[in-house]
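Researcher: Let's do a round of design. I'm pasting the structure tokens now; please hold your answer until I've finished.
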């Protein structure tokens, strides 16, 4: 058998995958009737939590890196919560009436960063202006300068964010009734309650803040409704409520469009260099609605790579969507991270065997600590050796392609043996 050896940089440059391609695992999430839940999802563990998407109105960032972000609840559709920039400051609080909405600008969350909430959607040339307020360089706090009218579940409120104390991540806000002209003042503090959350969620009707998210370390995606700029006709794009997946903070993504999923996996470095940090890289447009009555069509040459919270890399491909009425999203996933060798005495640090199941070629990649002689064998379940090859392993990354096109469909075991080297991997041939 011809041996192929390349340096690690050459492998990356040529797009040779140095990561294992494991079997697909089918999975799904359900957002429930009317897509009424936000579903927090972990790539290794599945659904972590489902949460009613209509139990909050405004969400306050609990992370200083999110630039004092305040989101409106578009998770239940853009009509559930509307934010009006009425172009008034705190000195005009008493004069605010419902009539101010006539000349107001609607504000929307944007889909690329958790820092782009609706109350931040007030364009300003001042780099220290965060929409609802301005950062003070002396105190390092943010002080409010804009009044909003917020329509929340068909009730109108006037809202002013008085301040954000940055050291404790404590917001103070005033909420007024437009009819009775009353005002209530609330504080929302990070504390221990929101130490591991992106947001604290606030209900304008009850005046209560709520912990809705699971621990930030436990999830990678949230399947929900969110707001995106969508081209519904002639330009420009407009804010529109969509259903899809947004990424957690610190989770990175790659997108492989119009390429077979196995080809994408074998060359995933092409799509993840650099990794994408936009939380809507997966987003909503992996599905298309066929007019006039459906059904939803899923692109079959589209997959995504996710560098998840557990530091492993996964590939995900969507395979079905039931529509917003039931909110069922169907997909398959697999881990593509190399297998680490924990034996300190071993002459290899990690290896990869892919694809698995295999059809024509089986790729074996070995990251070796030293030069070595090795024997590769594929054995069927009766113990018969169906492929045997002696190879030389050099220090560094070695890539081998084993021909398996003549093997019958079924289960096998791959053995790689050498001095202080032992690999045993189950293998499936499926054509």
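Researcher: That's everything. Go ahead.
Model: Designed sequence:
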């Amino acid at each position: 058998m011809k041996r192929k050896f390349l340096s690690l940089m050459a492998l990356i440059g040529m797009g040779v995958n140095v990561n294992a391609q494991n079997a697909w695992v089918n999975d799904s999430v359900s957002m429930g009737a009317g897509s009424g839940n936000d579903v927090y999802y972990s790539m290794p563990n599945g659904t972590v939590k489902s949460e009613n998407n209509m139990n909050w109105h405004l969400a306050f960032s609990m992370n200083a890196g999110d630039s004092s972000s305040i989101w409106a609840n578009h998770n239940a559709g853009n009509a559930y919560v509307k934010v009006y920039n009425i172009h008034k400051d705190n000195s005009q609080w008493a004069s605010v009436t419902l009539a101010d909405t006539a000349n107001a600008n609607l504000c929307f969350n944007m889909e690329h960063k958790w820092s782009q909430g609706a109350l931040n959607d007030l364009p300003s040339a001042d780099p220290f202006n965060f929409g609802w307020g301005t950062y003070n360089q002396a105190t390092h706090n943010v002080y409010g300068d804009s009044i909003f009218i917020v329509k929340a579940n068909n009730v109108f409120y006037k809202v002013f964010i008085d301040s954000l104390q940055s050291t404790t991540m404590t917001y103070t806000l005033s909420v007024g009734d437009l009819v009775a002209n009353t005002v209530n003042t609330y504080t929302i503090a990070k504390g221990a309650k929101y130490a591991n959350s992106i947001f604290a969620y606030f209900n304008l009707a009850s005046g209560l803040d709520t912990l809705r998210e699971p621990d930030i370390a436990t999830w990678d995606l949230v399947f929900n409704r969110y707001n995106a700029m969508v081209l519904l006709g002639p330009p420009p794009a407009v804010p529109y409520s969509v259903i899809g997946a947004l990424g957690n903070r610190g989770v990175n993504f790659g997108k492989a469009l119009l390429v077979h999923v196995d080809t994408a996996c074998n060359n995933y470095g092409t799509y993840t260099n650099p990794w994408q940090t936009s939380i809507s890289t997966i987003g909503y447009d992996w599905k298309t609605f066929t007019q006039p009555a459906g059904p939803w069509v899923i692109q079959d040459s589209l997959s995504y790579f996710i560098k998840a919270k557990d530091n492993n890399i996964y590939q995900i491909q969507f395979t079905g969507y039931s529509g917003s009425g039931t909110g069922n999203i169907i997909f398959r996933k697999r881990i593509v991270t190399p297998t680490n060798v924990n034996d300190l005495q071993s002459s290899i640090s990690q290896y990869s065997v892919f694809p698995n199941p295999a059809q024509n070629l089986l790729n074996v990649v070995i990251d070796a600590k030293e030069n070595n002689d090795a024997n590769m064998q594929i054995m069927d379940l009766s113990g018969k050796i169906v492929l045997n090859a002696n190879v030389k392993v050099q220090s560094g990354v070695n890539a081998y392609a084993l021909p398996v096109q003549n093997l019958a469909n079924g289960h096998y075991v791959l053995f790689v043996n050498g001095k202080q080297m032992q690999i045993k991997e189950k293998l499936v041939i499926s054509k």
